[in-house]
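>> received
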Amino acid sequence: MEFQQVLNQRFSVREFEQKMVEDEKINEILKAAQIAPTAKNSQPQKIYVVKSDEAITKFRQCTKCHFDAPIGFIVCYDENQSFLGKDGRQFGVLDASIVTTYMMLKATELGLGTTWVGLFDAKLTQQLFGLPQNVVPLAFLPTGYPKEGCQPNPRHFDNKPLDETTEWL
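>> returned
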């Protein structure tokens, strides 16, 4: 699939088939995350693959926005490994965001759907999954095969004109 096709096809999938995602595809998504750029190549990402029945139950306790996906990812960053700018800016949020984007695009290329979920209980996530205090959850990524006929939310196509979001200097 051409890159522009991947960009055009990706949308937030909120209806999934109850078909397990193959480990080979999960590994391809993780490899995409592995090559995502991070500040100073610090690679502070910590990704949890949510696949077992027990883990899926916990995942669903932490967010209403799980969409009954058969698997999920919890994308986090380690504050102890994240680059800290001279101005005190923590780059972990940016790094984990780039990683999540790479994962979503790779999933689309593989015929899978995802939704970037930011609405989750971070404290409950840390508690239920036993995350260390320095590992900060950034995004939940419900993942699976889109249900047949699943369509993007109509607002998906509402893009502001470039002249409203861009300035040439």
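>> The beta strands are 45-50, 71-78, 113-114, 135-144.
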